[in-house]
Design goal:
The protein has 412 residues and is α+β, with helices and mostly antiparallel strands. The protein has 3 helices and 25 strands. The chain has a 5-stranded mixed sheet, with no helix packed on it. A 5-stranded mixed sheet has the order 11-19-20-23-22, with no helix packed on it. A hairpin with a 3-residue loop joins strand 6 and strand 7. The termini are far apart.
């Protein structure tokens, strides 16, 4: 026991004298680190840090590791410092590697690698202790919202080092927040981000996610689902008939209304008139038997809830029963399907063109026949004009002359 104690005291004395000589030499010569290499270390609180002192082309010089208070942690492969959290990982002529387990904030600082050369060399490894924030806390000003209203949310990441950053996502869209950073008494950072936005009915059930980014943690987030109330969406569906509405047939309409909260009241009205007295209304269904043209008009389904009121229109036009003039099938909704009126101007124009063409044809035919008849009589009379007496004229008129200047008839 006495020999062990004396050996330990001798080692400490040797280190003391050695460091004194080193410090004296360091004061006389400038510090260089061209052959000594180390790395900065970032470690999460409670985890393990590795400090490595490496030498390039070592000439058997002694390597030593000191803590931020310049206390020797390891001298070669010996550990004078009584802190069992430091353990030797590797020792050779070219490296001294030491582990520090269960790192705390008090371990943060600049560690020194020393190489006993002439002059001595130093390199520095800064240990940064990362402290992750606590679980993010998301809060909403309003639990239930109405479409078109503005709301506000806050997300807080507490007690971290360094300060965290906060991002916001609504569904798959990123929204900008307004961050605020506070340094607490224990030198920690608390970050609060405030988000303001306007909701629509499409936001109902959509998650709003607060994402905390920090070097010590990944995918750190909290979320809250939106509950948005909105006025009803109304749609009229024609159950019967599928085609045209004709006299004597029946009509059945269904009003589909969806909202949040679900509409409790659905009414049928006829715009600018009363619903036919024999019409049957059951909830959202409207049924009319034996249609006639007096029922023509706009039928409106109105649905309401605590947020507001909405409606949809169906325009009814009852056609004659004659199938010969049947127009194309349609849906008489919201002004569509009204009877197609005949353009009398177009018909009048067509009739005028036809009459004009017929008149032109009659004129051409009349001129043709008149010209044909006149030519015939003109040639016939020429025989009498050339005769010397009445007998010769009769013979020429009958075509009996045979002289070389005989007149001929031509039909044009």
């Amino acid at each position: 026991m006495a020999n062990a104690r004396s050996g330990s005291l001798a080692t400490i004395l040797f280190l003391f004298l050695f460091q004194a000589a080193l410090h004296k030499g360091a004061a006389q010569y400038p510090v260089v680190s061209q052959n000594l290499v180390t790395d900065n270390v970032s470690v999460v609180e409670g985890e393990m840090a590795i400090i490595s002192c490496r030498v390039k082309n070592n000439d058997d010089s002694v390597i030593q590791l000191l803590n931020p208070n310049r206390q020797t942690i390891y001298f070669r492969d010996m550990r004078p410092l009584k802190d069992a959290r430091f353990q030797l990982v590797n020792f050779s002529d070219n490296e001294l590697r030491v582990s520090l387990s269960n790192v705390s904030l008090s371990d943060e600082g600049r560690y020194v690698c020393q190489l006993y050369t002439d002059p001595p060399q130093e390199a520095y490894a800064d240990i940064t202790v990362l402290i992750p924030p606590g679980n993010p806390i998301i809060e909403a000003r309003d639990e239930v919202l109405s479409e078109g209203n503005e709301t506000e949310m806050t997300c807080t990441a507490m007690s971290s080092k360094p300060a965290a950053t906060i991002r916001w996502m609504k569904g798959d869209k990123e929204l900008p927040g307004k961050p605020k950073v506070e340094l607490t008494y224990d030198k920690m950072y608390t970050v609060t981000s405030r988000l303001t936005f306007t909701v629509s009915k499409e936001d109902d059930g959509v998650p709003v996610v607060c994402i905390v980014d920090h070097p010590a943690v990944k995918d750190f987030q909290a979320q809250k689902y939106l509950e948005v109330q909105y006025k009803p969406e109304v749609k009229i569906v024609v159950e019967f008939p599928q085609g045209l509405t004709r006299e004597g047939e029946n009509l059945e309409l269904t009003c589909q209304a969806k909202g949040k909260p679900q509409p409790q009241r659905v009414n049928w009205v006829k715009v600018d008139d009363d619903v036919p007295s024999h019409a049957v209304i059951t909830g959202g269904d409207l049924y009319i038997e034996n249609l006639n043209k007096s029922y023509n008009g706009t039928y409106r389904c109105v649905a309401s809830n605590s947020v507001g009121e909405s409606y949809d229109d169906y325009i009814l036009y009852v056609y004659d029963t004659a199938p010969s003039t049947e127009p194309a099938a349609h849906d008489s909704r919201a002004g569509e399907g009204a009877p197609r009126t005949v353009d009398h101007a177009v018909i009048g124009g067509v009739v005028a063109v036809v009459v004009f063409a017929m008149l032109c044809l009659l004129i051409v035919l009349g001129r043709y026949f008149a010209r044909h008849k006149g030519t015939y009589f003109t040639h016939e009379a020429k025989g009498a004009d050339d005769a010397a007496d009445a007998d010769t004229a009769i013979i020429n008129a009958e075509g009996g002359h045979t002289n070389s200047d005989e007149k001929k008839e031509y039909y044009i």
